[in-house]
Amino acid sequence: MRLESASAYNTPARLFHWITALLLLVQYVLAWTMPDVHRDTKPVGLIAWHLGVGVAIVLLVFVRLLWRSMHAAPPEPASLPAALRALGRYTHWLLYLLLIAVPLMGWANASSRDWSVTLFASIPMPPLSPTGSPVGHALGDWHRVFAWVLLALVGLHVGAALFHQFVLRDNTLARMLPSHRKQAATKQ
Ligand code: HEM
Ligand code: HEM
Q1: Would you say the CB of residue 8 lies under 6 angstroms from ligand 1?
Q2: Which site from 1, 37, 129, 176 is most exposed, i.e. has the minimal number of CB atoms within 10 Å?
Q3: Is residue 94 within 8 Å of 28, Cβ to Cβ?
Q4: Any keyword Membrane (predicted)?
Q5: What domains can be seen in the chain, in order of their start residue?
Q6: Exposure of 100 by Cβ count < 10 A (0-12 exposed, 13-18 middle, 19+ buried)?
Q7: Distance from the CA of 44 to the center of ligand 2, in angstroms?
Q8: How far is ligand 1, taken at its centre, from the CA of residue 31, in Å?
Q9: Cβ burial 39-66 (10 Å sphere, 16+ → b, else e)
Q10: Is the Cβ atom of 54 under 6 angstroms away from ligand 1?
Q11: Is the CB of 50 under 6 A from ligand 1?
């Protein structure tokens, strides 16, 4: 069996992971610094950036999931109790679900406001709800609520990574870090 599939996430999986994490960090900073959105707000400046980065996140997650469907995650350390293993897996799939649902809800809300949504401020994206749609309007509230749920889950996830690293000391974090392959390869 190839070392990569045995003990570490492959390079694209690690790149997808850290680019998503970076974009998500930027996205929360944008969300909290952009002006409040009201009925007559125009999607310019930081708001336009929030829409553009959000669309980039959801498209990236779709590509990432496509890649993931073709490459299984490396097996967890054998020492990990079954309950913790299951908790980790459920958390990861819930993270993926929210990484799709949260931006789509924001996008539907933007469409209901008749805002044009573009990728990289240039490529036009289709509307996800009709202008003035009550569902699109309500999804704006859910977008904000689930953005907090996503953040809480990321907090749990990062806490788990640190628990693995400093309490269980089971090398889990290294599976997602760039140095892993080099370290492991030198042991071969
Ligand atoms: C994972 C990606 C995203 C995250 C984490 C996120 C996070 C947030 C947060 C925290 C707020 C609340 C800001 C505040 O009121 O303080 C917000 C508002 C908003 N976001 Fe996003 N967002 C994401 C993607 C998107 C996308 C893709 C769009 C549209 C294309 C979008 C459109 C909006 C809109 C229109 C609002 C205002 C909603 C309202 O107040 O009714 N967001 N977002
Ligand atoms: C900031 C947003 C983050 C998101 C949305 C996120 C999401 C994810 C997802 C979905 C997976 C599962 C990968 C798969 O099996 O397909 C994963 C794995 C992993 N993440 Fe994150 N992550 C984030 C940040 C972090 C941070 C800051 C750390 C380190 C402190 C971290 C450490 C890890 C580790 C070690 C794994 C592999 C777990 C394992 O081998 O079972 N993540 N992450």
Answers
A1: no
A2: 1
A3: no
A4: yes
A5: 3-182 (1.20.950.20)
A6: middle
A7: 32
A8: 6
A9: eeeebeeebbbbbbbbbbbbeebeebee
A10: yes
A11: yes
